[in-house]
Structure formats: C-alpha cells, structure tokens
Design brief:
With 283 residues, the protein is α/β, with parallel strands linked by helices. 35% of the residues lie in helices and 23% in strands. Strands 1-2-3-5-4-6-7-8-9 form a nine-stranded mixed β-sheet, with helices on both faces. It is globular.
C-alpha cells in the first residue's frame, strides 16, 4: 500500500447499503491502520454526511459495527458510519502489550509527547485529520458534515476531538465517557506515560477541563448507565455537569437506572444518538 491508497479486506451488503473493512498506511502512526465504513443506500445517489465512532479500551474497528446495531438506523437517516481502530498496533515498544488499559488497544485518542510513544501514538491527529481525509478521498461522503461519537475511552476521544476542533465537527455525543481523565486511574496511567508529568498538558486532553474554557455552540448529548461498573472510579460524569455549568455549555446528560458499561447499553440508546446526529448533519 502507498500512503494514499486503501486495501479492501471485505465488503458486505447491509440494509440496502454496504459495510466494508479496509486498511491503509498511516502517516501519523507509521503503521497499517484498519477502519470500517458503512455506506447507506442514499450514497448511491450522491455524497452523504459521515458519523465517526471511537471505541473503548481493547476494541478494534470491528467492535461497534458488529455489536451496536447502528447500520439499520444509519440507512434510515442517510448517514455513513466510520469506525477506526483504538491504537496503532505492532510498533514493538517495551510495555506496549503488558496491560489492557495502556498501549495496544488503548491509544486514548491523544497525540503522545513522551518517548517512545510520541513517534506512533498520534491517535488525535489520526482521527481529526488523517482518517477523514482518507475517507473523503475514497468514499462518497461530504467533507463539511462530520459528526463524532464514542464509548468509554472513545467517548472521551469524541468529546475532546469535537471540543478542540469545533470548526471540523458539526455534532458530538458520547456513551459512558471517561469524562475527567486527569482525575481517574485510567487517565492517570495513560496520560503520565503518553504525556509525561505536566498536569497542564494532561488538561488539554480532558473533556471536562476543555469544556470549562472552550464550550461549543451546540448541545452535547451524553448517556450514562447508573449500574455501570466503572462509574464511580473511572467515568465521573458529574465533572462534565460542573464544567458545563461553569462555561454555559449546553449539555444533555441522561442517566439510566439498571444499565451497565456494555454494548447492551449502547444498543438500547444508539437510535437516539443516530437521530441526534442526523438532525445536525442531514440537510
């Protein structure tokens, strides 16, 4: 593969459209990155808006499109769905494969600045710039109508990406995001290794910290299960509420009794998220 080409792994008819799995050589990570694209039937008549999904710890580009049940909904609304891997793979850094919550499968959607991670763990630039450029070159999607959402670590990534570059992302939502990573074990572990010891640098990749000073003009939708096993220790949605209150950010944070951190939770509310993004993206 050249840097500007893609390799088709497989494609399948799906709800009148097509789901495909692809690879390309990434300039940002220095690795081959996998991604998935669902094109709704409307894409046969012309370019459609694209909704990007960021998955959580240990996941790949296949997790959401297999587990969430979103393609039927995307077909109804005329949205393309794009899902990417959660980190580079195979860089061979010491410690890269030692734990589920750091390294492989746990890129945290930031641009690392500490060695050796800084040369390949550049998921923020990959998601914000490189992947959309690849998708917009090779698929019939509109370059000026992008939405982004995600789950857990990916919810963190979606919020941070949209807060840092509101001019590039029309809409954003999240399922059970790591809302305040500078203050929880998952974030502390990842940020100290990827970014070093400067807490101010960490705050540039924390949705609650960003929301206090860089609110978006639109409403952000967040869903959180109250039976989530990671809620108290790792997620801290109350930090988002406090940040929104301080900055005036419009935030719809919905809490759902009985729901946990799984894709059963995502399946239950993904229709609301697809409809929310469709209202912002589909003309």
């Amino acid at each position: 593969m050249t840097a500007d080409s893609i390799e088709t792994r497989e494609e399948h008819a799906c709800f009148g459209g097509r789901i495909g799995f692809y690879r390309h050589a990434s300039r940002e990570t220095g690795t081959t990155m996998g991604f998935a694209v669902y094109l709704p039937p409307q894409a046969e008549r012309g370019p459609v808006p694209a909704l990007y999904y960021l998955a959580g710890l240990t996941c790949t580009e296949e997790t959401f499109v297999i587990k969430a049940g979103a393609q039927r909904l995307a077909a109804e609304h005329g949205l393309a769905l794009v899902a990417c891997d959660t980190s580079p793979r195979g860089l061979g850094y010491a410690g890269e494969d030692d734990a589920y919550d750091f390294g492989t499968g746990a890129g945290f959607y930031l641009d690392a600045t500490a060695e050796p991670w800084s040369s390949g763990y550049r998921m923020a630039s990959y998601v914000d710039r490189e992947l959309p450029a690849v998708v917009e070159t090779h698929f019939p999607v509109l370059p000026d109508r992008r939405g982004i959402f995600g789950h857990s670590m990916g919810g963190h990534g979606a919020l941070v990406t949209a807060l840092r570059a509101p001019e590039r992302w029309t809409s954003v939502s999240a399922f059970a995001p790591i809302a305040n990573p500078v203050a929880v074990p998952w974030g502390e572990k990842a940020f100290s290794n990827y970014l070093g010891d400067d807490i101010d640098a960490w705050k540039q990749w924390d949705a609650s910290e960003l929301m206090r000073t860089r609110p978006r003009a639109d409403t952000i939708l967040v869903d959180q299960g109250e039976a989530d096993q990671f809620l108290a220790e790792q997620l801290h949605p109350e930090a988002l509420e406090a940040a929104a209150g301080a900055s005036g950010q419009k935030l719809t944070l919905r809490r759902h009794p009985g729901y946990d951190h799984s894709y059963w939770f995502i399946q239950s509310f993904v229709a609301d998220h697809i409809a929310y993004h469709a209202r912002a993206l589909v003309a």
